[in-house]
Write a structure and sequence with these properties.
By secondary structure, the protein is α+β, with helices and mostly antiparallel strands. 61% of the residues lie in helices and 7% in strands. It is globular, with a radius of gyration of 35 Å.
Length: 881
């Protein structure tokens, strides 16, 4: 009726949506999403908004907004549409006039003009200092200016005065004209390219370095919790006034930040509503550079910014910052590695996109090394194909051996070249050609040739035998190139470690250390420290913990004197954590693995598979230290990443599943654990064989689940097979073998074969004490089992003396879900009963019955004995016997 009415924002949003769909039935869900996007609400908020809207429209009879029962609402009546042209206000700014409110600065040049904003370069009249002023004449861009000021503060508080970002110096948000005052960061990429006579005139190597710098800057912003959301050439600057070009990122007016981060820093959410800070389905950004998921209305993530970087990388490679990335773009990019980088960064499916801006920067900076690695890989693949064809002609081949040796060959080629390019930083072309010749000779004539029966003299050569033969030829082949000898030995050491050939692995590490020492390499040299850590890792696998600890401590002292050694600190934490975990010190291991995980984020040298492995170790240590919920979340997050990176049937993926199954079992989720164990063991036996340590460990853990369910005879049968496998693979005095014997003895005892368990336990106790010390949790667990067996076979006094020497807390670390206090009290009751102290035994058993776990088969066996004993005592009391 021509009367103006005031409306709150939500009812106004509801009206706007109803107007756009006049005459249609609109569901409650649609209206809630339109007016409260991404927010958790109740139906009452919509009902209240509609009631306020009806009041403003004088719609008491509900003739305008009609309720559709259980569905939503419908706007009735005629709706007229009229286009109203809103003319933006103008400040009528001109060159050389003073900046409004900053009289010392004079406008020099307009940099940008849009519907509701103007951007000007200004210069101080005396100092000639340059500043950039962003004006909002009518206030319609005020919120964007406020957001930019807020995010600048977040970046500065998190990163200091980092040159990668244009610093906001001041602002004027109280009255028009509103503006933001920033430092001058250089020309935007479009203007800079034009000043060079076109981007194509700039060498590609320089263009890629600028892109790498941009990726670094974006990665820093992400580390501070800030998304840009509008990355494009116009918002990226180049300052080459100081000689070397410096890339800066500007215009965070469309950005977002976690509001908790703002609270943590004590920063006012200027320019943000609560929803804007976290959410949202914001369509701000430039469509050419927007990720598909953002265009579709999903909340932006760091990977959305990575998509923008991918599009810009394409433009930088083709030398045109205005060219859209259309289908068939690959034809414009000759380099297959750059094709791969662009495709992975600008991947339409978010799950397949490069995860971080830092990863993209690392790819670009290692492009030359990757080319060499790729050439070596292709050459090795060609040799592998040629060798396989030769073997086919002999009709006496082992295909899986050829494939495995070829895979090892590829690993050697990559490792040697990575070593050549990064560890030693040699870059002389003539020497590189000589390196190619030497390495190719070793790979082709010494390693891969072992798969050929005509060379090896046998048709069933195993991978291990082939590697052992090749290892014996390192010294003469690389006599004049000790640097390559070290790299080859390091790679073979890792190969032997994966093959469970620990003695041979140790030999390679020690030989590498000897060559480094002969070359008078300083003891604190990174290569020397890395090799010591690998030797320490090998020693832990053979249970020589004291020797390993000495090396680990030695490396730690050396690292204390180095400023920039993030990768080595990561390796140190990883190896030290493994050592602690193998010794049963799970809480300490968890801390070390958490430290390694944090360090990995700060080192581009840490590979993706290393990061995944350390997160696997951390999840395992969380489970073993009793933090089951945290462990379960960690395992669930890791599994899809393992499958994506390694494949569903890879040994590492299967090993992860086995560890998760163990965690589920310890948490009491036995049905889930059973299914996962069976799937894991089937896969490991298929991929690695029944005798591999990883397969044996999975089967041993499955036996623990069998025992937990009360299938003691079946558990004993499984463990007998596992123990036999460990004896063959690692020897009778290896820690894995000894611990398996302890578990086997426990299963034998529980299935009524205590006499067989006693000698097995005595041997295991002595062996574990030699390796880990008599006070170690594993040694104490073996002593508990022996004392338990001794009571069964009638040697009660000896058992009583042993129980007095065993600290309960030591056992809680090896089996955290067991009720050890109740178990010890039950054992004392058995001793009292056997030694004639029947009344005290009865009192102990009554207390024990309250504490025993009904879900534990072992403790239920204890309960059955306790109840039977109490019935016997009651019967004796009634009869006077």
């Amino acid at each position: 009726g021509g009367v103006e009415k005031d409306l709150e924002r939500r009812p106004l949003d509801v009206l706007a949506y109803l107007l756009r769909h006049a005459g249609e039935t609109v569901t409650k869900e649609e209206l809630l999403e339109a007016a409260w996007p991404g927010m958790v609400t109740v139906d009452a908020v919509l009902t209240n908004a509609v009631a306020k809207l009806r009041k403003a429209l004088n719609d008491d009879g509900q003739q305008i907004i009609v309720t559709q029962h259980r569905v939503g609402y419908r706007l009735m009546g005629p709706v007229h549409r009229k286009l109203i042209a809103v003319q933006p206000q103008s400040l009528n700014l001109k060159e050389s006039q003073p900046v409004p409110g900053r009289d010392n600065f004079k406008l020099k040049r307009r940099l940008d003009l849009s519907r509701h904003s103007e951007v000007w370069l200004a210069e101080h009249g005396k100092t000639r200092e340059r500043r950039v002023f962003k004006f909002s004449p009518d206030g319609l861009r005020l919120s964007a200016l406020k957001r930019e000021a807020t995010l600048s503060r977040v970046l500065q508080d998190a990163l200091g005065t980092d040159p990668a970002f244009v610093r906001v110096i001041d602002w004027q948000f109280d009255s028009a004209p509103y503006f933001l005052e920033c430092e001058y960061g250089g020309q935007n990429w479009l203007d800079w390219a034009e000043a060079q006579g076109g981007l194509a005139n700039v060498p590609q190597s320089r263009r890629l370095e600028l892109m790498a710098q941009l990726c670094d800057a974006v990665a820093k912003a992400h580390s501070a919790g800030v998304l840009h959301k509008d990355l494009k050439p116009a918002n990226c600057l180049i300052d080459d006034s100081g000689g070397a070009a410096v890339v800066r990122v500007t215009d965070f007016g469309a950005g977002r930040v976690d509001p908790e981060r703002l609270q943590e820093l004590g920063i006012t959410q200027m320019g943000f509503t609560q929803t804007q800070a976290v959410n949202a389905a914001s369509s701000t950004g430039t469509p050419l550079y927007m990720a598909p998921e953002v265009i579709a209305g999903q909340a932006p993530t760091t990977q959305s910014d990575v998509y923008s970087l991918g599009v810009m990388l394409y433009q930088m490679v083709v030398g045109d910052l205005r060219r859209p990335m259309a289908p068939g773009w690959e034809r414009d990019v000759e380099d297959p590695l750059l094709q791969e980088d662009i495709r992975d960064a600008a991947q339409g499916h978010q799950a397949e996109r490069i995860s971080t801006a830092r990863s993209l920067a690392e790819r670009l900076r290692t492009l030359d090394v990757r080319r060499v690695q790729r050439d070596a890989t292709l050459a090795a693949e060609a040799r592998a194909i040629a060798a396989e064809r030769a073997l086919e002609r002999t009709r006496a081949r082992r295909p899986f051996v050829v494939a495995a040796i070829a895979a090892l060959t590829l690993g050697l080629g990559v490792s040697v070249w990575f070593y050549q390019e990064t560890a030693r930083a040699r870059n002389a072309s003539a020497r590189s050609l000589e390196t190619v010749r030497i390495v190719n000779h070793f790979l082709n004539d010494e390693l891969l040739a072992q798969a050929n029966p005509a060379v090896a003299g046998k048709s069933d050569m195993t991978v291990r035998e082939a590697v052992e033969r090749a290892a014996g030829r390192i010294a003469p082949i690389f006599a004049d190139r000790p640097d390559l000898a070290v790299a080859i030995r390091q790679t073979l050491g890792s190969a032997f470690l994966e093959l469970d050939a620990f003695e041979q692995a140790e030999t390679q590490w020690r030989e590498a250390l000897r060559v480094l020492a002969d070359q008078q390499v300083d003891s604190s040299d990174p290569e020397m420290l890395q090799t010591r850590l690998k030797l320490a890792e090998t020693l832990t696998h053979t249970s020589r913990f004291k020797e390993a600890a000495a090396l680990i401590d030695e490396v730690e002292q050396m690292l204390g004197r180095q400023n920039d050694a993030t990768f080595l600190r990561f390796e140190h934490a990883r190896v030290a954590g493994q050592s602690k975990q193998l010794q049963g010190q799970f809480a300490a291991a968890a801390q070390l693995f958490e430290r390694a995980t944090d360090l990995a984020q700060g080192s581009s040298a840490v590979t993706t598979d290393s990061v995944l492995a350390i997160r696997h170790n951390r999840a395992s240590s969380l489970s073993l230290s009793g933090r089951f919920d945290e462990a379960d979340q960690a395992f669930k997050a890791l599994l899809p990443e393992y499958v994506a990176y390694f494949g569903a049937r890879h040994m590492r993926t299967l090993d992860l599943m086995g560890t998760h199954a163990q965690s589920l079992m310890q948490a009491g989720r036995d049905t889930e654990a059973d299914a996962m164990y069976r799937q894991t063991i089937e896969g490991l036996e298929s991929v690695l064989g029944q005798g591999h340590s990883t397969t044996l460990v999975a089967r041993a853990e499955f036996a623990s689940l069998q025992a937990k369910r009360g299938d003691f005879a079946l558990a004993a049968e499984t463990l007998e097979s596992v123990a036999d496998g460990f004896r063959k693979a690692r020897g009778k005095d290896d820690l894995y073998t000894l611990i398996t014997d302890v578990n086997l003895a426990s299963a034998l005892k529980l299935s009524g074969r205590s006499a067989e368990a006693e000698p097995m336990l005595r041997y295991a106790i002595r062996g574990i004490a030699v390796i880990m010390g008599a006070e170690s949790p594993y040694a104490r667990t073996a002593e508990y089992n022996l004392a338990d067996v001794l009571i069964d076979i009638g040697r009660v006094d000896e058992a009583a003396a042993m129980f007095e020497q065993i600290p309960v807390d030591a056992l809680k670390t090896t089996e955290p879900d067991a009720n050890w206090d109740a178990r010890f009290e039950w054992q004392r009751a058995r001793i009292d009963w056997a030694q004639g102290r029947r009344d005290r035994a009865v009192e102990r058993l009554k207390m024990v019955l309250v504490s025993l776990n009904p879900d534990s088969a072992v403790e239920q066996q204890m309960r059955a004995w306790a109840e039977q004993t109490l019935r016997s005592a009651e019967s004796a009391a009634r009869t006077g016997a």
